[in-house]
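Newbie here. two chains, one complex. Structure please?
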Amino acid sequence: MKRTRNISIVLNSLFILVISYVAWYRRQKVLSEAQEFSKDVNAWDITFAIQNDMYLILFFLMPLLLFLSFRTIEQQYEPTILIRVGSFRNWVYYSIKWYVRAVLTLFGFVLLLSFLCAVDQPFTLQWSPYSQLATSGNISHHLVTTFRSPLSVIFLQPILWLLASIVLHGLMCLMFLLHEKRNGLLLQAAGVVIWCIFSFKSSFGVGEFFSPAAYFSVGAVSNIMQPWVALVILSLVIALIYLSVQWIQSLRQLLTSQKELLPYLVYAMLASLYILLSSSRASTELQTIGDLFVAVFYGVSAEDSSFLQLVSHLILFFGLAYLSQLRLQEQMTAIGPYTWMRYQRLEKWALHVFVREGRFYLLALSLLILGTIVIGMLQGVSLSLSTSLLSISPMQLLLQLFGISMLQLMLYSLFSFILLWQFPDGYAMLGLFGVLSVFLLPDFNRYGIFPSGLNGFAQLQSFSLTHLLIVLLIYVGLSLVWLYVLFQKSIRI
Amino acid sequence: MEMIKLEQVTKGYQGNPLFADVDLTIQKGDIVGITGPNGSGKSVLFKMICGFIHPDAGTITVRNEQLGPTRRFPENVGVIIDRPGYIAHKSGFENLKQLAAIRKVITDADIEQAMRTVGLQPGNRQKVKQYSLGMKQKLAIAQAIMEQQDILILDEAFNALDHDSVLRLRELLLSFKKEGKTIILTSHNQQDIDALCDSVYRINQGQLEQVG
């Protein structure tokens, strides 16, 4: 008990120390910048600079908020509490209530400190001359374009904190209830932090829109939308959480009975979202369906890479490879020995498995392409396969889209198969996808010899179709030889 | 007629010898029991006879065909080994049908008959993940016998079965013996071994010693 209290004192002290240091640092920065440009500041310039410091939010407040969320859920998901609250729905309300109490103390301290740091400056009802200064670190300048008075910001900020905290913890609770695993909860929290940092660092609109961190700052929110829209969005998400909570029991039952479909549903959702967003992002440049294919399936190359393109390849193609890996694992570990005995030859069995995976990829690719065509038609692009975005013919476009993609996907499955054959528990797959992701990084695959992401249209900027085909065929050939050698040995069962 | 023959079979696992120059011959229609403490190599022996694992030395012959590069797995052998043997999100019938579709020698009616024989309801749409341990074991047995396999290799086939099911399985195996099927099995329950086996071998220090 005493030890817990000591840890709590240390953590609280650390929190106060970090926040105080950042607040002091931000205050000094505002004052020195104002002095440099000979502009007068008022209290709001310092207050808002502290409250909207994205580095503070991303690297300190978000991890802290998620830690609090994790700890609240972990401590409160107890049979003794569940019995008393009576249902999962009530448990979510109960947990949110506790969480909001905890984080409002935290935000109250941030608010108080941001005021204290500005106490020697005038609290006027107008924006200061400093707020007219267009420098990159001047938060007031971003706010002055959206808000007439600083008072609106100071009223809006606590509302945002409150709503965003409810959304963050509500979603954490909902997700947790679907799996009920501590490690899953940890992954959720880590995923949110990583996503927020990625979105901030890569500065792409879609990412910021979906980044929870942005909704904790009036400055960040007003950069991407009207502040009232943010309030509406947060309120809608809270309403959605409320509705989901009403159906949580049925959702849990559905997920338990149809667990195997979950990865496919998540993939379909992510892929649809990506196709929709990427086609609308580039809609002004898109004239034909060929253009749309190039935009959606552009991928990455050594010379041409961006975060969104990387994510797109990871979602669309690694996602499919992951689904295939789940199927392979099932075939190998669940019923493997009983099918091998019946096939009599491992090679015959493997051929059957790969034909099945080939059909799966063909269907998935066709659906992705069909989905893209439908979205293109809705956007009114012409149904021509020619493209002005790349100097390739419609035939080359189709070959890259179908032929090379199929070959690339089959190669991913071959790699998965070989690794699963040697390490059936599937942990090695993380390493495989990790290594394949590294090959997608900028400047890595300069000579197009690493077998990852070769089906993106970005590759056609540097390599011919023949080059890509030969590289993939060589890897397929080598993998088949490797597989044949493995099949001659004892099986790891 | 010799159905299974091991000659001078040697096998080690991670530097520890499991079998050293082991010989074993099993005749058609015999029920042979293999016993031994945990980790003695019973499952490894069965996996070698099935062709999953290669011996370090020696030969294994099933129906006069030596297992090796040209014959990896023996033909028409029903097997239960220490692996699940089912896809959890499919029903029992769907699982068996998927396996039966490989050789295509039996019909749906045969699958249903095999399920009834072991005490499972073919019409039960319950997914295997919702099965009890005993039901899963019965499904494994149905899988091993549904294609009228004439050699059965059963590693702990009696595990998790209730008393009535154990008796039913014993009767079933004895009826298979009468039909001339060859069975090699392990069980932790000595009563199963005593009630069924024509001969019993115990694995002891890398050797198969006949104890019954």
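Moderator note: Chain B has a mean pLDDT of 91. Chain B touches chain A at residues 47, 50-54, 69, 72-73, 75, 77, 79, 81, 83-89, 95, 98-99, 102-103, 127, 143 (CB under 8 Å). Thread marked as resolved.
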